[in-house]
């Protein structure tokens, strides 16, 4: 009698979990879940590093671009098929394999966030060189307009071997606008509004306030550039210091899968009791979902941003 109630409890828990998962998935697809709009979300909307950076506003680019690109659709389909096959191998249940393959729906969002983070790091690194170039030109006695023009030349030489040059593209746009009659302050404000990054805001605000209120622009620019450069250096040190933890999180995710494969091929009978009941397949499915959650949580925990 006790075993019957146990099975009933497991079945009820399973159906509650499935209902909650389906409800969460439907809300995610309909984009009704609350989303924290951080710097990476704003970065993607700005389109930094793409050919469309200087063409139109962020809202115009967002309307022109499809929600899912061809690469994202193809990647989602391939990942869903791979997860389904893996589910058949580990769970030996078509139902749980299908549910496991639904995790591929989150692939486009995960991919966009990775691309956004990489572009952010690349932009910040190149912006550090741009600040130093502008500061050095001002210390040499050049005007701000001349410093921006020299910064363009310095970045062209420094980044000639790199494929993506988001900062150089923005400096080119600033110099182009100034040459066609836009004031330096207006061009810098436009650059600040387009990027919407804290480091860019601090550097541009320091220049604009000094030009408006009066002061030693060379000294203010130098101090601001050094302070922001120190902050960027600390961020890079943090990323380097947490690289080991990120590697450990990946190992902790992959190791149980490797152990299960070794047991399945070296001693198949050891895993057979797990497949003899519905509860065994369910707990294997739950373990697979927890491994995916372990990877995602580990990645977020080790992603420290100042």
Features:
306 residues; mainly alpha; Receptor-associated Protein; 14 helices; elongated
Task: Walk me through the structure.
- The chain contains 14 helices and no strands.
- About 80% of the residues lie in helices and about 0% in strands.
- The protein has helices at about 1-30, 40-45, 60-65, 70-90, 95-100, 105-140, 145-160, 165-180, 185-195, 200-215, 215-240, 245-265, 270-275, 280-300.
- The protein has a domain at about 120-230: Receptor-associated Protein, CATH 1.20.81.
- The chain has about 300 residues and is mostly helical.
- Residues about 30-40 and about 40-65 have low confidence and may be disordered.
- The protein is elongated.
- The longest helix has about 35 residues, at about 105-140.
- Helix 7 packs antiparallel against helix 8.
Q: What general form does the structure show?
A: elongated
- CATH secondary-structure class of the domain at 121-232: Mainly Alpha
Cα separation of the termini: 58 Å
Secondary structure: number of strands: 0
Unreliable stretches (pLDDT < 50, length at least 5) are: 31-40, 42-65
Structural class: mainly alpha
Domain Type II secretion system protein GspF: 132-264
InterPro entries: T2SS_GspF_dom, T2SS_GspF_sf
Membrane topology: Multi-pass membrane protein
GO cellular component, one term: plasma membrane
């Amino acid at each position: 009698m006790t075993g019957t109630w146990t099975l009933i409890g497991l079945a009820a828990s399973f159906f509650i979990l499935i209902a909650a998962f389906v409800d969460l998935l439907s809300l995610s697809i309909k984009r009704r879940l609350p989303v924290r709009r951080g710097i990476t979300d704003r970065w993607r909307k700005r389109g930094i590093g793409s050919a469309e950076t200087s063409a139109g506003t962020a809202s115009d680019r967002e309307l022109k671009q499809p929600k899912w690109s061809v690469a994202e659709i193809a990647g989602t389909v391939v990942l869903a098929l791979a997860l389904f096959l893996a589910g058949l191998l580990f769970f030996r249940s078509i139902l749980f394999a299908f549910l496991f393959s639904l995790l591929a729906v989150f692939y486009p969002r995960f991919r966009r966030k990775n691309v956004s983070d990489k572009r952010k790091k690349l932009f910040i690194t190149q912006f550090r060189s741009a600040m130093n170039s502008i500061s050095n030109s001002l210390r040499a006695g050049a005007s701000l307009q001349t410093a921006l023009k020299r910064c363009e030349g310095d970045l062209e030489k420094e980044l000639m071997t790199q494929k993506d040059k988001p900062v150089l593209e923005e400096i080119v746009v600033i110099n182009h606008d100034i040459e066609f009659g836009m004031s330096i302050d207006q061009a810098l404000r436009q650059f600040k509004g387009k990027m919407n990054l804290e480091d860019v805001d601090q550097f541009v605000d320091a220049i604009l306030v000094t030009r408006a209120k009066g002061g030693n622009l060379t000294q203010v620019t130098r101090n601001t550039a050094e302070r922001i450069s120190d902050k960027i250096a600390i961020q890079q040190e943090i990323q380097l210091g947490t690289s080991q933890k990120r590697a450990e999180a990946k190992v902790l995710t992959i190791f149980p899968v490797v152990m299960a494969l070794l047991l399945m091929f070296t001693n198949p009978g050891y895993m057979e009791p797990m497949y003899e009941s519905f509860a065994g397949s369910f707990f294997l499915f739950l373990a697979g979902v927890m491994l995916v959650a372990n990877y995602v949580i580990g990645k977020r925990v080790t992603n420290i941003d100042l």
